[in-house]
Design goal:
The protein has 331 residues and is mainly α. It has one domain: Hypothetical protein af1432 (Orthogonal Bundle), CATH 1.10.3210. 60% of the residues lie in helices and 0% in strands. Helix 5 crosses helix 8 and helix 5 packs across helix 9. The radius of gyration is 21 Å and the shape is flat. The termini are far apart.
Length: 331
């Protein structure tokens, strides 16, 4: 039977853009592995991420609203899935490597702290902590009981460089970086409208004019702009006009939702909780899980590893066990 992996390589050569990242040309893994005769390296990376523990924990990590009561608010997991969907749509339209874009998307937030960016800001007070670097550490070191997942260079590079400060080495990495922004700006508007934090009339008219007046229209217009501006070119980004307005809409969200809205009223409590846990582990090294204590890292990094591997609920339970007095029961 013909090697199915070779058939995949041939299809990529035939159908992908000359600017796409071909699986056969990957820079490889730190530890070389034999192929399985079926999946490309990026397909295998996608599957490893999808089945890892860190990916499953995303369902209990905050996106914007802390422990929302409603069933329809986003979590870090649903955000990740929306990023992957947008990235695949753009990658397909530009004839880029969809599997690489999907793998980066699924892994880009694995290192996020409990309570989202609030937790990230706390850890950054004590160490040079960023969720993208921690996401890379999650796939390189922390998963699989300290052995990591041995992902390919291109996926690791995309995970590390998905933020606005990054500069991915592949067009697929750039696609994910923009897909992340498109996803969170638009689904956070949707959640803010659902939660009564925003009203439709609050959205500035210039953004409704350029992007549209519904969730679907806004996402579609941003995707179409990237595709039209980048088609058959060696870049993957919005036009300068859309960049400016996406940035403006993001600034609007920071002003009205991310930093000063009712959705953030409980955020200081979450930050205090994370700070308490950090200082507790700093004074009580023996309470850090043994598998983390065995790693070759500073104690500060080990504390960040411990906390970043917690879901919102688990962090709250650990805090309660440490800080809340238990009822006395005589023997």
């Amino acid at each position: 039977m013909k090697n199915l992996l070779q058939r995949q390589y041939e299809m990529e050569e035939r159908f992908l853009s000359p600017y796409a990242t071909k699986s056969k040309e990957s820079k490889g893994r730190e530890i070389q592995e034999n192929d399985d005769g079926l999946r490309t390296c990026f397909q295998r990376d996608r599957d490893r991420i999808l089945h890892c523990k860190a990916f499953r924990r995303l369902k209990h990590k905050t996106q914007v609203f802390l422990s929302p009561e409603g069933d329809h608010y986003r979590t870090r997991l649903t955000h990740t899935l929306e990023v992957a969907q947008i990235a695949r749509t753009i990658a397909r339209a530009l004839s880029l490597n969809e599997d690489l874009a999907e793998a980066i998307s699924l892994g880009h937030d694995l290192g996020h702290t409990p309570y989202g960016h609030a937790g990230e800001r706390v850890l950054d007070k004590f160490t040079d902590f960023t969720h993208n670097a921690q996401s890379l550490r999650m796939v390189d070191v922390l998963e699989k009981d300290g052995s990591g997942m041995n992902l390919s260079f291109e996926v690791r590079d995309g995970i590390l460089n998905h933020t606005s400060r990054g500069n991915p080495s592949t067009l697929e990495g750039h696609v994910v970086a923009w897909s992340d922004r498109i996803a969170y700006i638009n689904h956070d508007i949707d959640d803010a409208l659902r939660g009564g934090v925003l009203k439709e009339k609050d959205i500035p008219k210039q953004y409704i004019k350029i992007f549209g007046d519904t969730h679907a229209k806004r996402i579609n217009s941003m995707i179409l702009d990237i595709v039209n501006y980048s088609f058959e070119k060696n870049h993957a980004e919005p036009s300068e006009e859309f960049k400016k307005h996406i940035g403006g809409l993001r600034d609007f969200m920071f002003e009205k939702v991310y930093t000063s809205s009712a959705a953030k009223e409980e955020e200081q409590k979450a930050m205090d909780l994370i700070e308490y846990l950090y200082n507790y582990y700093l004074k009580n090294h023996s309470k850090i899980p043994k598998n983390i204590m065995q790693l070759d890292a500073t104690i500060e990094q080990k504390i960040c590893d411990t906390i970043s591997m917690m879901s919102d609920q688990y962090a709250a339970r650990v805090f309660a066990e440490i800080a809340v007095p238990k009822n006395w029961d005589k023997l």
